[in-house]
Amino acid sequence: MSTTTVPAVPTFIAGEWRKISGGTPVFNPSTGEVIAECPVGGAAEVNAAVEAAATAFPAWRDTPPIERARVFFRYRQLIEEHFDKLCACVSREHGKTLAESRGSLFRGLENVEYACGIPSLLMGDSLENIARGVDCETHLQPLGVCVGITPFNFPAMVPLWMFPVALACGNTFVLKPSEKVPLTAVLLVELLEKAGLPTGVLNLVHGGREVVDALLTHPRVRAISFVGSTPIARHIYETGTRHGKRVQANGGAKNYIVVMPDADVPRTVESLSSAAFGCAGERCMAGSTALTVGAAADRLLPSLVEAARAIRVGPTDRATQPDMGPVISAPHRDRVLSLVASGESEGARVIADGRGIRVPEAPGGYYVGATIVDGVQADMTLAREEVFGPVLNVMRMDDLDAAIETANRSAFGNGAAIFTNSGKAAREFKHRVKAGMVGINVGVPATMAMFPFTGWDESFFGDLHIQGREGVQFYTQQKVVSTRWFGDGVGDVWKK
Ligand code: NAD
Fold first, then answer.
1. What pLDDT digit, counting tens, does each position of 245-271 carry?
2. Is the pLDDT of residue 237 over 60?
3. Has residue 151 got a pLDDT over 90?
């Protein structure tokens, strides 16, 4: 398909929008059409963007926090006013349903709201008289130029996890969105410019490995926030820290949902179906494996299979909305299908089969129907690898201990959930399970803006997580000031 007539995605450097022709195609996954061309970028753009951010830093750092917050109050308003346009863009370039795009944008907006509270969040501690006549206080000061590198699966929410709080703290920023979904990032940056952000404070560059590596090694970059797959997260963490940067790098996941025999069946089916198939399974918090304990499988599976088969799949870029959209690309669809086939060839049973799905109204789109694979064993490739598609594995467990042990053997540690009516089972699970975000009768325990997004193990590389107070700590450095004033008391001003 020709890509010559589609618009080029602009960069935004030092307050200037610039189009560079040539690049990689951006697809509408609902139809397979090329909708834009994303520049590949290189060291020249990175240098210009980092220099612009470094130049803007001193004035922005000295802007009072309350004035910085006001920019985000205006930004919040502008996002609300352009909500539908932003959601349509997310659905068009990513393939989420409009309802899913709205949900994810709300989650992003909460981070803007959190950033509006920055004057209180930046307050330090103080203690009078740490020694006679000596007072001590802490200040949270910004770092300088920070960088955000984001994945394809949340084109609005993940960038909004990063730059609002980083900027509200007084840093300047360079955003590098996924080359698969760069268009929503352009809208987000345009709106912040409109909200009155000074020139150079936020910059936008595009590209893949070359641009990322130039950002990771640039001497003026102080901190890097990354969200994406585990191998790249590890690379970002290792390269960034080796070059003296502070790094928080969220990686991939494989999240387990334990279903106890006493779980409420209709509610569990609803939650599990949405955890596994929501956003076509392209969520780092997707509940991709059900660990059914004892009789739970027989109680649950008939209704779960029925629910999966009832999910209407189709294009998300038009007025009539499906229940589930496409996955991001043709190669990704093929990978999902081959992982299901690998499970089948290793002895698992496909009990809801979305592989042959036909979407006549959009034959060029990248569709996989909701799929459930029963009898998955821990050593199967399907059990170990992140599928990132609408596929739910079912692993049958004898008891809660076995379920917790299975979940804890995972290399990842993002989310885990239990469905039960037993407080004792829930307590045991939340205490012992090896995951940073835990749900009790909550299928997708993704945290909101005021709490950190606490992946563990191979789901996170770094010390301070994204969001919440940890996010503020990540984007600031503490200064502790101890003060003593000299005077003999005779002739001191207050005595005159
Ligand atoms: P990805 O790792 O392929 O890409 C993420 C970013 O890294 C993109 O901006 C991309 O341009 C860049 N990149 C890709 N290859 C690179 C390379 N070789 N060197 C340097 N940079 C490179 O991830 P994706 O496919 O866009 O997103 C899906 C993944 O993200 C899944 O694994 C998912 O679990 C994960 N994810 C994790 C979280 C979380 O919070 N833990 C949230 C969302 C998504």
1. 999 999 999 999 999 999 999 999 999
2. yes
3. yes
What pLDDT is attached to residue 1?
Answer: 44
Kindly write down the DSSP assignment for every residue of 121-138, as one continuous string: HT---EEEEEETTEEEEE
Nearest CA to ligand 1 atom 43: 284
* Count of other CB atoms within 10 angstroms of residue 385: 13
Atom index in ligand 1 nearest the CA of residue 229 equals 32
Given a contact cutoff of 8 angstroms between Cβ atoms, the answer to whether 214 and 176 are in contact is no
In 175-210, which positions are buried (b, 16+ CB within 10 angstroms) versus exposed (e)? bbbbbbbbbbbbbbbbbbbebebeebbbbbbbbeee
Best residue among 227, 238, 335 to mutate for probing ligand 1, ranked by most atoms within 8 Å of CB? 227
In the chain, where the domains are located: 11-251+459-481, 255-440
Domains 11-251+459-481 and 255-440 share a fold: no
- Cβ of 467 below 6 Å from ligand 1: no
The tens digit of pLDDT for each residue in 417-470 reads: 999 999 999 999 999 999 999 999 999 999 999 999 999 999 999 999 999 999
For the chain, the C-alpha Rg in angstroms (whole number) is: 25
Rounded percentage of the chain residues whose pLDDT exceeds 70 = 97
Decide yes or no: CATH 3.40.605.10 for domain 11-251+459-481.
Answer: yes
Strands (E), 228-380: 246-250, 255-259, 287-293, 349-352, 371-374
Q: Which residues are catalytic?
A: 284
Span 402-428, average pLDDT = 97
389 close to ligand 1 (CB < 6 Angstrom): no
List of residues 6+ apart from 302 with CB closer than 8 A: none
CATH superfamily of 255-440: Aldehyde Dehydrogenase; Chain A, domain 2 (3.40.309.10)
Ligand 1 centroid, distance to 161 Cα (angstroms):
15
Maximum pairwise Cα distance, the chain: 93
Which of 13-22, 46-55, 229-238, 421-430 is predicted with the least confidence, judged by mean pLDDT? 13-22
By alpha-carbon position, which residue is closest to atom 34 of ligand 1?
Answer: 252
| pLDDT classification of 487: cutoffs 50, 70, 90 | confident
- Taking the CA of residue 466 as reference, the ligand 1 atom at the shortest distance is 40
pLDDT digits (tens, 9 = 90+) for 337-396: 999 999 999 999 999 999 999 999 999 999 999 999 999 999 999 999 999 999 999 999
CA of 427 to the centre of ligand 1 (A): 33
3-state SS assignment for residue 13: strand
Nearest to 245 by CA among 312, 311, 352, 171: 171
Q: Residue 38: CA atoms inside 13 Å, Cβ hemisphere, count?
A: 23
Helix (H) or strand (E) holding 489: none
